[in-house]
Amino acid sequence: MGCGSSTSTGTENNQTPTMDELIHSFRALDSDGSGSVTTGEIKKMLVQTKGYYTEDEVSAIMKDADVDENDRVSFSEYIRIIAKMFAATSA
Length: 91
Hints:
Radius of gyration: 12 Å
Number of helices: 4
CATH topology: Recoverin, domain 1
Helix content: 40-55%
Oligomer: single chain
CATH superfamily: EF-hand
Structural class: mainly alpha
Strand order of the largest sheet: 1-2
Distance between the termini: 31 Å
Shape: globular
Strand content: under 5%
Number of domains: 1
Low-confidence stretches: 1-7
Mean pLDDT: 77
């Protein structure tokens, strides 16, 4: 599983990430190469990029992002999470 700056999505300095950065950060999270990431992997990314999140907050983010309700987040669902993070910080 990626850690540190390997999961950077540009959120540290509020710059919108490029598609290459999104792909890189998703692949870093997708440690088994399955094409999706788990709640634990998403939580680690959120904590690394934005600070502390409670279990309830992570669960709410996952519930919102996991459109197909398979308890995993695909790349397209991952992009939705990042977009919402940027919308929240620019509001």
